[in-house]
Structure formats: structure tokens, C-alpha cells
Write a structure and sequence with these properties.
This protein is mostly helical. The protein is about 70% helix and about 0% strand.
Amino acid sequence: MTDHQAGVTERHERATRQARAIRLGRRSVIALALITLIGVAAFGWPLLADSASGLAHSQDAPWLFAALLPLLLAVVMATIADTGLDAKAVAMLGVLAAAGAALRPLGAGTAGIEPMFFLMVLSGRVLGPGFGFVLGALSMFASALLTGGVGPWMPFQMLAMGWVTMGAGLLPGADRLRGRRELVMLAGYGAVASVAYGTVMNLQGWPYIGALASGVSFVPGDPLPENLSRFLAYCLATSLGWDLPRALVTVIASLTLGPAVLKALRRATRRAAFEAPVTFEDA
């Protein structure tokens, strides 16, 4: 290979390699892993708690997790920011979080139509899992302030949306996969993530509904298969009519608006030059 060919190949690889607003370090990965494990416990404690444990019969468990999660989310986001969130990344984070917060009220409460999901998925895809987690959590926080939706459910929404956006950043082919195949993959992921988000958020509120019919309510201390069947019946009876339209809107928006949004995000990422080394020269 000649020097000219090598130079062309190197320039092509730099052009196709997707820059990341945040390169996750060891501390950030550990922090994300810990918040994920604690989040699984926070959402799934009704199904995970042993029937003989005090937690299975405790009415304080949801409030304990609701109080604990905001502190943990703050620690994780601070850890990620400390390992590489510079001024350019903060500016992009603010713009995208504001856009996501503004999109959510456009359809919230109307058959589950939430157009913010497609933007979160595409942003996580382009900007990476670390940036995606912070963006998803911050967008939900800003949306709650904007709509007056602040309550014990808010930290659970922040964590769940952080997972959705982080997952998009972990999808394969970030540097090579482009075009129609990428859009189909993102649309499929968005559909699954939209339904999964509604399902895990059901777990957050399910223990509070003991006054409902016994066929769908949480019964403390009951065996896992029985509570799980009640939870599935609860999802089918209450939220599936919201989750499926949310998934459909995400798929349609990803396929129709996705090419333009991905192009704009990648252009902004290249111009921001997140990975460009900073050098200082003598005057």
C-alpha cells in the first residue's frame, strides 16, 4: 500500500468512526453497573423479595427506593460528568434534554403517544451510552419540572429512560452500520424499548394498588408465579393500550425523521470535535 493509499484509508476510517461525547472510564462503568443493579431491585422488589422476608410485606419499600434513587442517580451522573463531560458536551446535553422535555408533553396522556422516545433513541445511538444515560435521566427530570409531574415516580422514570437511551448507545455497528439497515434496527429497538419502559414503570406503581381486584393486584408474600401472573394481567388490562401506540409512534418517527435527525446529530458531533486533543502553544 502506498503512502497516498494509506492516507486515504486513514482519513476514511476517521470519517466513519463515530465520535463519542463521553468516553466511559472504569469509574463510570462501575457506577452505571451499580445503579443498574440497584434499579433492578428498586423496580423488581415485589417479585424478587422472598416471601419470608420482611421486605415482601413492607409498605415502606417503594418509598425507600424513591428516596434512595435520586441520590444514586446524582452520584452516577456526577461520576460520568467528572470523567469527560466538557463544555461542548454540556451544551449539546442541554439542547437535547430541552428538546426531549419539550416533545414529551405533545402527546403525553393521549393514548401513550410520546414522541420524545425516538429522539432519545437516536441521540443515544450517535452520542454513546454514557451520554445517553445522562441525557435520558436529565430529559425526564426537565420534563417533570415542565409538566408538574414531580412525585415519587420521577426517579424511576429518570432511571428507566436512562436505560432506554443508554441501550441505544450500546447497539452494534456504531461505526459502520448506516442507511436503511441502521434505521430498521433503531426502529425495532425503539419499539421494544417503548413497551419495556411501560412495563418496568408498571412495576413501580403496581404495589400501591392493593385496593384493585385481587386478580391483578400485588399480594405481599405470595409465590412468584402467582404474583407474576397478576402483574402480567395488570399490564394487559391497564397499560398495553398506551405502550403499543408509543411503540408505533417511535417506529414511524424513526423511519421517517430518522435520516435527517441522525445526519444532524452526526454533523454536530463532528463539528464539536469531542475527541480532538487539546494542545497549548507558546505565544
